[in-house]
């Protein structure tokens, strides 16, 4: 991660301003003076779309820009490929100043560098699915055989083989957006702009599409700029999230930062409705593993065990986490043979949980376990532990936060927090 | 006491001034037509040649060959046996009732007028859709073209070009072109913004956007405009016959002046038959070229 951040960002946005109105340039000084959006609207009839946006987007990350409607997020994403021209500011892609391109160069830039997915799909109703997917290539002048072959391949990737000859109107919303996604991927552009791509889909299809996007990203390593108004979605797919309010950036950070350290009241209000057990991973709340046994023999192990305040410990070897051992069992075993090897000792098996799992998925296992559950990383090494009491604490914190921070919390939320408090 | 008669009677320009103005304008136009009439006439010569050639082609070819060609055209445009059969029957009846030649003449002039209206109207509609200023400029002109009685603009046209085919074509085109212009403009303006944006985002240039997105998506509306244009052109046939355009209009005109009811009815019915054939064929063609609209709509 540290290496990544030292590389020059792929896309840089510098001091971007966008005013809507008849004479935006004459109004810019007022904006610079720091007049508010409402004051400028009242005085000049101009709307401030975007104000002093600075962004660095790294190669290969999913960068989510989120905000409510009217926050300027759709305006912002249209600046990346200059579907909208800024009033002032710089847009650099790989060091290239996009604002300096003439019409021809801009067309070339759009063809090769960026592909876009639209909220209402933006498919061409008079072209078949196959022709739609190959549209980017046809604009580039690629011959029909090549683009059809490629389009077919991408259709297969998004799971729509067999639909080539259909027209978009014959597909469901989810299928249409898959076509939109395939069309974007078909040009091999490095940057993917997704403007509320999943917002028009129903929740089940939406989460399916999110999964598919994450899967695809694992193989393709594109740079994805994703617009959404749904924080759950942002947290789920974003490597980093920028929160936009009234055309200004409020906070930019990783999902955990946004959740745990909201920059201001606005972000906090946003964050409070998030299903945190779903959004947070085990890693963010686990505690360091307190007790681990590494001894070779049972005798050694018992000695280690006696030094710790608890009557259980995790047994760890070079191969990672093996199981849990309790003091009583060890004492019994020592009576039989002090020199017996730990390898042969029957440790209690305990299914460890992954540090990347969302909290939600491990609640039943953690609540039902006798011991705090060990948390392992992808290699199987012990990274921490999560106890029933700690998890209950964390969860009840989420809900009591809600109850404290808002006056209009609805009854169900209150009931929930009461319940969890009682459990404690 | 002051004269208050202007309260009860509209204060109008006195007769001599009005006469002066009319004289002046008439004179100016007469001078203009004397000066440039020949030049303008020779400008339209190619059109006249084409009109004569096309009319000869239709009139002088054997009737069965023409009928075969028309039926084939209708079939390939509509892919409908029913419509093709209807065409054969109506043309056989028309021929049997002795209106073959007049019908061919009308068919030729209407075809040329329609083609002319489309080749002029669609580009004008496209330009109109590009800028609001052009739209604001062209719309009132179209209003005038549609509402001004045809006889009024027949006068200057005849003064300039005399009577004959070309002034007839001009009069018909002036009357019939507004729908195709209006509906081209409207159709392009109604194209889904997001689809157009998608084309732009993938780097399509102006021409690619126009040919690949705007015109295809506007084509149902444009086709409706073309359809209207054809219908209005056919409606002008009788008026055009007053300035010497031969065809089905002339017998109708004759039957008005001489009160030949049956003659008028037969020729009128022949015009109606042509109109219905044009209409059904162009609509069936439009529908067929919009494959994506028909068929299983997903809900």
UniProtKB/TrEMBL annotation, chain A:
Residues 400-424 are annotated as: Disordered. The keyword Signal does not apply. It is found in: Cell inner membrane. It comes from the Bacteria. Keywords: ATP-binding, Cell inner membrane, Cell membrane, Membrane, Nucleotide-binding, Transport. It is an enzyme of class 7 (translocase). It catalyses: a quaternary ammonium(out) + ATP + H2O = a quaternary ammonium(in) + ADP + phosphate + H(+). The keyword ATP-binding applies. Residues 35-271 form the ABC transporter domain. One of its GO terms (molecular function) is ATP binding. Its main location: membrane. Belongs to the ABC transporter superfamily. This is Quaternary amine transport ATP-binding protein. It comes from Shewanella schlegeliana.
TrEMBL record, chain B:
It comes from the Bacteria. Residues 103-282 form the ABC transmembrane type-1 domain. It holds the Pfam family BPD_transp_1. The chain crosses the membrane at residues 57-76, 83-101, 107-129, 150-177, 229-248, 260-278. Keywords: Cell membrane, Membrane, Transmembrane, Transmembrane helix, Transport. The keyword Phosphoprotein does not apply. It is found in: Cell membrane. Its main location: membrane. Coiled coil: none annotated. It is a multi-pass membrane protein. PANTHER family: GLYCINE BETAINE/PROLINE BETAINE TRANSPORT SYSTEM PERMEASE PROTEIN PROW, GLYCINE BETAINE_PROLINE BETAINE TRANSPORT SYSTEM PERMEASE PROTEIN PROW. Belongs to the binding-protein-dependent transport system permease family. This is Proline/glycine betaine ABC transporter permease. It comes from Shewanella schlegeliana. The lineage of its organism: Bacteria, Pseudomonadati, Pseudomonadota, Gammaproteobacteria, Alteromonadales.
């Amino acid at each position: 991660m540290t290496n990544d951040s030292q590389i020059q960002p792929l896309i840089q946005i510098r001091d971007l301003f966008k005013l809507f109105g008849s004479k935006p340039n004459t109004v810019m000084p007022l904006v610079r003076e720091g007049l508010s959006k409402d004051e400028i609207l009242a005085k000049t009839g101009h709307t401030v779309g975007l104000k002093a946006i600075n962004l660095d987007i790294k190669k290969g990350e999913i960068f989510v820009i989120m905000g409510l409607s009217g926050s300027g997020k759709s305006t912002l994403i249209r600046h990346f490929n200059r579907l909208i021209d800024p009033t002032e500011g710089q847009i650099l892609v790989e060091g290239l100043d996009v604002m300096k391109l003439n019409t021809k160069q801009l067309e070339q830039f759009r063809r090769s560098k960026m592909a876009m997915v639209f909220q209402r799909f933006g498919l061409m109703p008079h072209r078949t699915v196959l022709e739609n997917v190959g549209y980017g290539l046809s604009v580039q002048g690629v011959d029909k055989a090549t683009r059809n072959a490629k389009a077919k391949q991408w259709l297969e990737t998004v799971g729509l083989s067999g639909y080539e000859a259909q027209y978009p109107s014959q597909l469901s919303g989810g299928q249409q957006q898959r076509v939109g996604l395939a069309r974007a991927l078909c040009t091999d552009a490095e940057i993917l702009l997704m403007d509320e791509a999943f917002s028009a889909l129903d929740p089940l299809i939406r989460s399916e599409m999110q999964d598919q996007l994450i899967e695809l990203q694992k193989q393709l390593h594109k740079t994805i700029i994703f617009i959404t108004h749904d924080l759950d979605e942002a947290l789920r797919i974003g490597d980093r999230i920028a929160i936009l309010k009234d055309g200004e950036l409020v906070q930019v950070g990783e999902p955990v930062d946004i959740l745990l350290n909201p920059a201001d009241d606005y972000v906090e209000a946003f964050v409070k409705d998030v299903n945190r057990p779903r959004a947070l991973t085990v890693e963010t709340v686990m505690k360091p593993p307190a007790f681990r046994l590494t001894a070779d023999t049972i005798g050694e192990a018992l000695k280690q065990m006696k030094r710790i305040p608890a009557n259980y410990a995790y047994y760890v070897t070079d191969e990672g986490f093996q199981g849990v051992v309790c003091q009583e069992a060890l004492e019994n075993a020592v009576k039989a043979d002090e020199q017996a090897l730990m390898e042969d000792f029957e440790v209690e098996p305990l299914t460890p949980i992954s540090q990347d799992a969302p909290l939600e998925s491990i609640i039943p296992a953690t609540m039902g376990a006798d011991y705090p559950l060990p948390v392992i990383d992808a290699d199987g090494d012990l990274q921490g532990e999560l106890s029933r009491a700690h998890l209950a604490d964390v969860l009840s914190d989420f809900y009591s936060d809600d109850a404290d921070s808002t006056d209009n919390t609805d009854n169900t939320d209150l009931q929930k927090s009461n319940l969890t408090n009682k459990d404690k | 006491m002051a004269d208050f008669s202007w309260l009860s009677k509209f204060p109008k320009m006195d007769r001599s001034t009005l006469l002066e103005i009319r004289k002046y304008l008439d004179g100016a136009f007469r001078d203009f037509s004397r000066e440039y009439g020949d030049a303008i006439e020779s400008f339209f010569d190619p059109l006249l040649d084409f009109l004569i050639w096309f009319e000869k082609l239709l009139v002088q070819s054997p009737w069965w060959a023409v009928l075969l060609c028309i039926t084939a055209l209708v079939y390939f445009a509509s892919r409908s046996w029913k419509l093709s059969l209807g065409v054969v029957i109506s043309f056989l009846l028309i021929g049997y009732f002795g209106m073959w030649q007049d019908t061919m003449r009308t068919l030729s002039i209407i075809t040329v007028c329609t083609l002319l209206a489309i080749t002029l109207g669609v580009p004008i509609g496209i330009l109109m859709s590009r800028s609001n200023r052009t739209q604001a400029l062209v719309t009132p002109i179209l209003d005038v073209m549609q509402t001004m009685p045809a006889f009024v603009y027949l006068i200057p046209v005849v003064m300039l070009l005399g009577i004959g085919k070309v002034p007839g074509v001009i009069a018909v085109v002036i009357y019939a072109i507004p729908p195709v212009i209006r509906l081209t403009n409207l159709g392009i303006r109604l194209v889904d913004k997001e689809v157009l944006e998608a084309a732009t985002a993938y780097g399509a240039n102006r021409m690619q956007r126009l040919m690949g997105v705007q015109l295809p998506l506007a084509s149902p509306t444009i086709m409706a405009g073309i359809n209207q244009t054809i219908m209005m052109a056919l409606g002008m046939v009788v008026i055009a016959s007053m300035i010497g355009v031969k065809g089905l209009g002339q017998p109708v005109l004759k039957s008005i002046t001489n009160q030949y009811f049956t003659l008028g009815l037969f020729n009128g019915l022949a015009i109606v038959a042509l109109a219905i054939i044009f209409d059904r064929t162009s609509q069936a063609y439009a529908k067929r070229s919009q494959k994506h609209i028909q068929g299983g709509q997903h809900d």
